[in-house]
Structure formats: structure tokens, C-alpha cells
Automatic annotation (TrEMBL):
Protein name stated in the entry: Beta-ketoacyl-ACP synthase III
Domain Beta-ketoacyl-[acyl-carrier-protein] synthase III C-terminal, residue spans: 281-370
Family annotation (CDD domains): KAS_III
PANTHER family, sorted: 3-OXOACYL-[ACYL-CARRIER-PROTEIN] SYNTHASE 3, BETA-KETOACYL-[ACYL-CARRIER-PROTEIN] SYNTHASE III
Keywords in alphabetical order: Acyltransferase, Transferase
Domain Beta-ketoacyl-[acyl-carrier-protein] synthase III N-terminal: 150-219
Species this chain originates from: Litorisediminicola beolgyonensis
Protein biosynthesis is among the record's keywords: no
A Pfam family reported for this protein in Swiss-Prot or TrEMBL: ACP_syn_III_C
InterPro entries, alphabetized: ACP_syn_III_C, ACP_syn_III_N, Thiolase-like
Length: 372
């Protein structure tokens, strides 16, 4: 048995930013347009008028101030409100592979490794640009990695579930070095025309390089323990599956995009996640007061404050539970990895922390790490 360790991380951040102000201005113009176009149906009570969004609501409800996106103009056009992405030649890298290569390159550089030394690539994300061939196999080819590659999807928990899969394979010896990469082009499946959720997501890609601890060339975080859990819920859902064209009523697009009952998610996921982390710590024989850092899923600041308080038994200092959601918004599976990548360099040997993600499924994944 080998000890798996994280030896490198990388974050690709898109060049375009949408501030809350820009987002709300575009949404409100869209709502006015919609209400004018549907004035008769609204007056007859057949459809509901769209209310305006507000920057105050967004910040107070979520803590989000801006988000990065792969393409901005299409999202902000009031009569469109989704990205405009040109089709690509079959031989050109997919968008997910393109941004994955950037993040993987950074993770490899941090670990002092070449792509040819990698023998597993997991593309762990909440949507995949095509069902097959796997995006992970495409990334493997463009990187020049060996071994094998596969895609997996557990929505917001994809990265931590991917880390568990890679850690188990490294531990058993079937794999020596793995990249767990999470290209999240959330702008493609967010309903930007729905004020209840239009502010929630942003685009990004993260990569985590994992190898045998004994192979590490520099600083490393040993993966001491991983734990994944799922519990079925319909409260976060996207119906855009491959049987979609076999159904009637294709004109209704709403259920092809991200949908959620945010209030229920908020209430139900909080106790689930807090109990999950506390149970994992207890079974590993770790004391919460011994934790130096919590790198939580980045969906909502109030949620993270609550989980931090429950786990630590007190209000955590801001550097103990860093948030990045004010800048990146919710980037689905990548959020806790961005927090880890940007806020772990100062930890000293012996310092311990927990990476934890949670979301649709419901799903929760936690990774106990120790800086060596
Ligand atoms: N501006 C102004 N008013 C608004 C707006 C807005 N933008 N949005 C809603 N309102 C109104 C509502 O209509 C409502 O009005 P009323 O009381 O008259 O009905 C009122 O404000 C309150 O609305 P909510 O109850 O919805 O507000 P909340 O306080 O609950 O906040 C949140 C909404 C922020 C969404 C909150 O519920 C939350 O964060 N919930 C948890 C969400 C979460 O963590 N979800 C995880 C999803 S991520 C995941 O699993 C990955 C999925 C795959 C990725 C998909 C990528 C696209």
C-alpha cells in the first residue's frame, strides 16, 4: 500500500468577468423585453411577469460579487442570455480539453512533473461537452499522458469523488500518478433568464496532481482519508439527457438547464454536510480544533459560515475557512479546489485541513489532508 499525496494544483481563470451590476442590468432589460412581448398573456394571467433582479439581493443572499465566464457578450444580450460559442472542427480541442490543458500544465509544473509521467486522467465535472469519446481521453492525448482516462460526473462533488477514486488507485498501486481535472463551463447550462439562479455560477477549470507520497519532489499534502456519500434528491436537477429528443414539447427549454429549489437545498444540505465532516474527522481520530483550514464548496457564504461554525465549534477566523465565491461565484466541482489551490501555500508541515464539496445528488465528498 502506498500513501497518496497531492503535489500540485492548477487553476485556469477565464479572461472575462461579469460583475453583479452588469448582470442585473442585462437581466432587467431582458425582463422588460419579456414583459412587453408577453403583455397580453400576462394581463390574462396566463404567464407571470418577470420581476427585476437586484445586486443587493444577490450579494446578501449569496456573498457573490462577480463571476468569470468563457464568453461574455452572448450572456449579456437581453434577447439571448446564453454564451455564444462557435462550433469547433472535430480535430480541434474541445473547450473543456482546452481549459483543462492550462490547469493541468500548472499542476504539473508545481509538482515538477512531465505529462508523460501521468498514468491516469479523470475529467471530473458536472457536465461534459460530449458523451464520447471521453473528454478525459482527449485531455490525455493532448497532454501526452500515458495509462488511461475516464470522465465522471457527481455534479458539485465531482472533484472530491475523483480525488477519492485516484487516491484509492494510487494506494493500491494500480496507478502511480493521476490528474483529477474539473473543467466547469457552467455558463453553458445555467438559465441566465431566471432571476432565482442567474447569479449563481461562473466558469473555471481546476486540476489536482496526485502521486505516491514517496515520489513527491517538493512540498506535498498527504491524502490521509477520503469519504464520499450520496442521498437522492430532486431539488437540484437538469433534464438535458440523451433521451431529450425522444420527448414531445421540445420547445420548453427550462428543464434543459440548471434548476433548483434553493431554499430546500440550503436547509437540507447544511446538516448533511456538517454531520458528514464531523463523522469523517471522528472516524479518522482527528480533533476539529486541530484543523488549520477548511476548504469548503463555494456555493453560498452563509452556508459556509454555518458549516464552519458547526465543524470548528466556534466562528472560524477568515483565514481558517477561506472563501473565493465572491470572485468566482459557484464553479460547481471546482470551488473547493480553487480555495485549496489559492489558500494552502502558507501551511506548515504537520498542519491539517479538510477539502469538502457538496451539491446535486445530494452528494458530499471530504478529503482529509496533512501538509508534509
Ligand atoms: N433579485 C431579487 N429578488 C430575487 C432574486 C434576484 N436575483 N432571486 C430571487 N428573488 C426573490 C424570490 O423570488 C423570493 O421572493 P418571494 O419571497 O416573493 O417569493 C425572494 O427573493 C427570496 O428568494 P429565495 O428564497 O430563492 O432566496 P434565498 O434566500 O433562499 O437565496 C439562494 C437563494 C442564494 C439560491 C440560496 O437559496 C442558496 O444558496 N441555496 C443553496 C444553493 C446551493 O448550494 N445549490 C447547490 C447547487 S450547485 C450543484 O449542485 C451543482 C449543479 C451542477 C452545476 C450546474 C451549473 C449551471
Amino acid at each position: 500500500m502506498f500513501t497518496p499525496a497531492i503535489t500540485g494544483t492548477g487553476v485556469f481563470t477565464p479572461e472575462h468577468v461579469i460583475t453583479n451590476e452588469e448582470l442585473v442590468e442585462a437581466f432587467n432589460a431582458h425582463a422588460d423585453l419579456f414583459n412587453a412581448e408577453n403583455a397580453e398573456a400576462i394581463a390574462a394571467g396566463e404567464i407571470e411577469a418577470k420581476g427585476h433582479s437586484s445586486t443587493e439581493f444577490i450579494f446578501n443572499a449569496s456573498g457573490i460579487e462577480q463571476r468569470y465566464v468563457y464568453e461574455k457578450d452572448g450572456i449579456l444580450e437581453p434577447d439571448r442570455m446564453y454564451p455564444r460559442l462557435a462550433p469547433r472542427d472535430a480535430e480541434a480541442p474541445s473547450i473543456m480539453a482546452e481549459i483543462a490543458l492550462d490547469a493541468c500544465g500548472k499542476a504539473l509544473a508545481q509538482a515538477g512533473r512531465e505529462a508523460s509521467e501521468v498514468d491516469l486522467v479523470i475529467c471530473a465535472a458536472s457536465n461534459h461537452e460530449r458523451p464520447y469519446p471521453a473528454i478525459a481521453v482527449e485531455i490525455q492525448r493532448h497532454l501526452g499522458a500515458g495509462g488511461f482516462a475516464f470522465d465522471m460526473n457527481v455534479a458539485c462533488s465531482s472533484a472530491t469523488f475523483g480525488i477519492q477514486a485516484a487516491a484509492d488507485m494510487i494506494r493500491s498501486g494500480s496507478v502511480r500518478r493521476a490528474l483529477v481535472v474539473s473543467p466547469e463551463v457552467t455558463s453553458g447550462h445555467l438559465e441566465w433568464r431566471d432571476r432565482d439562479c442567474h447569479f449563481i455560477f461562473g466558469d473555471v477549470c481546476t486540476a489536482v496532481l496526485m502521486e505516491r507520497a514517496e515520489d513527491a519532489k517538493g512540498a506535498r499534502f498527504d491524502v490521509v482519508s477520503t469519504r464520499c456519500a450520496t442521498e437522492y434528491s430532486n431539488n437540484i436537477r437538469n433534464e438535458n439527457g440523451f433521451l431529450r429528443r425522444t420527448r414531445d414539447a421540445m420547445e420548453d427549454r427550462r428543464d434543459m438547464q440548471f434548476m433548483q429549489n434553493g431554499r430546500k437545498v440550503f436547509k437540507e444540505v447544511l446538516p448533511l454536510v456538517s454531520a458528514h465532516i464531523l463523522g469523517h474527522l471522528e472516524d479518522a481520530g482527528w480533533e476539529a480544533e486541530g484543523l488549520k483550514r477548511l476548504w469548503l464548496h463555494q456555493a453560498n457564504k452563509t452556508m459556509n459560515d454555518f458549516i464552519g461554525r458547526k465543524v470548528m465549534g466556534r466562528v472560524p477566523e477568515s483565514d481558517e475557512q477561506p472563501n473565493i465565491l465572491q470572485d468566482y461565484a459557484n464553479t460547481s466541482s471546482a470551488g473547493s479546489i480553487i480555495a485549496f489551490s489559492k489558500h494552502s501555500g502558507d501551511l506548515e508541515p504537520g498542519d491539517r485541513g479538510v477539502i469538502c464539496s457538496f451539491g446535486a445528488g445530494y452528494s458530499v465528498g471530504s478529503v482529509l489532508v496533512e501538509r508534509v
